[in-house]
Amino acid sequence: MSHTPHRLLVTGGAGFIGANFVHYWLREHPDARVVVLDALTYAGNRANLDPVRHHPGLRFVHGDIRDTALAAALLREEALDTLVHFAAESHVDRSIQGPDAFIDTNVNGTHSLLKAARQVWLEEGRTPAHRFHHVSTDEVYGSLGPTDPAFSETTPYAPNSPYAASKAASDHLVRAYHHTYGLAVTTSNCSNNYGPYHFPEKLIPLTLVNLLDGKPAPVYGNGRNIRDWLYVEDHCRGIARVLVQGRTGETYNIGGNNEWANIDIVRHLCELIDRSFAADPALRARFPHAAPAQGQPSAGLIRFVQDRPGHDRRYAIDATRIRRELGFAPQETFATGMAKTLAWYLAHEDWWRAVMDGRYRQWVTQHYAPAGA
Ligand code: NAD
Ligand code: DAU
C-alpha cells in the first residue's frame, strides 16, 4: 500500500545524511512540513540546514530522541504522519572506544521513538495513515569474504562492532513494533555514503581535508578492506522511494554496486586533488601546505596505521529488491559523485574548518596516536 507523506518528523536531520535528506525532500516537496529533531551532538550541526533555513515548511527542534514525551508531543501538535529516523551514533571507531553512547542512542533512542509513535498513531488513533521509516546500515550483516555474494535482505544478521550491534538491535525493535502492535514501519539498510556535509572523521572527508592541509592520510591495516560507496543524495532518493511505495513491515537494501578497497579510494582522492591543483592554480594559494602546492604528489602523504579492532573485511549490497519492486537505481556514477564531493569540500572550507573544533582535534589526537603512545 503506498503512503503519501505530508508532514514529517526527521530525527538526526542536522547530521550528514539527515540534512541531505531534508534538502532533498523540501526541494522535491516545497509544500511539505518537515520538523527536524536533533540533539546536535559532535556530528550534528545547525549549519547543515543552512540551505533550507528560510523554508517556511521547516522547523528545527533541539532535542533528544530518548525524550519520548517530546517526540510524542511533536507528532501530536504538528499532526505528523511520517517519521524518518536517522538520528544515531554512527562512527564505528567511536563505538569501539565507548560503546555505551551507542546503546543509549541507537537502541534506547529508537525504542523511545517507537513508543511515541505507537502512543500517538495507534493508541490515540490520531493518524491512521502513518509511516515509521528506520534508516539502518549494511553493517548489521557482518563481513563478507572476497567471493561471497553481496548482502541481501535475507542475509542473517551478524553484527561485529558495538555500532553494528546497536543498529541491529534497533532494526529488530522496529520489526517487533510492526509485528506486535501493527505500527506501519519500513527499514532500509544502506552501504557507505559519501558527499556534502560528511563529517571529517569518516574516511573520504578525512582524507580530503587532511590532504588539503598537507597532513597524513591514514589507512587502516593493509588498506584492502572493501566498502560499497553510494552518493548521499542517491541514498536519500532511495529512502524517499521506500517511504512512498515500500511495503510496510519490509526491509530494503540500498547500495551503489560500487566496491572499492580503501587504499584505492585514498589513491583516487590523491589523484583527484593533484588534478584539481594542476587545473586551478588558485588552489596553491588557498592550500599552501597541500603536497601539490609544493610540487609533490599527494600520494606521498598516505600512511598505513594500526588496524581497527574487528575490522570488517568487505561489505557489498545486493539492491535487487529495491530496483525490481520500487524501480530505484542510483543516478550518480562514482566519477560524478566524487567530482561533486571534492568540489563541495573545496567550496565549503569554512564549513569543515568550523566542525574541526577542539572536540574534533582531541578525537584525532587520541585516535591516531601511535601504538603505545
Ligand atoms: P551522523 O553521525 O552524521 O549524524 C547523526 C545525527 O544524529 C547528528 O545530527 C546527531 O546530532 C544526531 N543525534 C545523535 N544522537 C542523537 C540523539 N540522542 N537525539 C537526537 N539526535 C541525535 O550520521 P549519518 O552518517 O548521517 O547517519 C545517519 C543514519 O544513517 C544513522 O542511523 C546511520 O546508522 C545510518 N547510515 C549511515 C551510513 C553512512 O555511510 N554514513 C550508511 C548507512 C546507514
Ligand atoms: O557501511 C555503512 C557504514 O559506513 C555506516 O553504517 C556508518 O555509519 C558509516 O560510518 C560507515 O562505516 P565505516 O566504518 O565503513 O566508515 P569509515 O568512513 O569510518 O571507514 C571506511 C573504511 O575506511 C573502513 O574500512 C575503515 C577505513 N578507514 C577509516 C578511517 C576513519 C581508514 O582506513 N582510515 C581512517 O582514518
Concise account of the structure shown:
The protein has 373 residues and is an alpha/beta fold.
Head-to-tail CA distance between termini: 57 Å
How many β-strand runs? 12
Order of strands, widest sheet: 3-2-1-4-5-6-10
Q: What fraction of residues sit in β-strands? A: 15-25%
- Spatial extent as radius of gyration: 20 Å
**What structural class do the secondary elements suggest?**
alpha/beta
**Order of SSEs, N→C?**
EHEEHEHHEHEEHEEHEEHHEHHHH
Task: Output mean pLDDT.
Answer: 97
Low-pLDDT segments = none
Number of helices: 13
CA-based shape: globular
Bound molecules: nicotinamide-adenine-dinucleotide, 2'deoxy-thymidine-5'-diphospho-alpha-D-glucose
The helix content is: 40-55%
- Biggest sheet statistics: 7 strands, parallel
Question: Overview of this structure, please?
Answer:
With 373 residues, the protein is α/β, with parallel strands linked by helices. The chain starts with 6 loop residues before the first strand and ends in a 6-residue tail after the last helix. β1 (7-11), α1 (16-28) and β2 (33-38) form a beta-alpha-beta unit. The protein has helices at 16-28, 68-77, 92-97, 100-123, 162-181, 203-212, 232-245, 262-279, 282-286, 320-326, 334-347, 349-355, 358-367; strands spanning 7-11, 33-38, 58-62, 82-85, 131-137, 185-190, 192-194, 217-220, 226-231, 251-254, 259-261, 302-305. The strands form 3 sheets. A 7-stranded parallel sheet has the order 3-2-1-4-5-6-10, sandwiched between helices. 2'deoxy-thymidine-5'-diphospho-alpha-D-glucose (DAU) binds next to α6 and β8. The site of 2'deoxy-thymidine-5'-diphospho-alpha-D-glucose (DAU) has 19 residues, from α6 and β8.
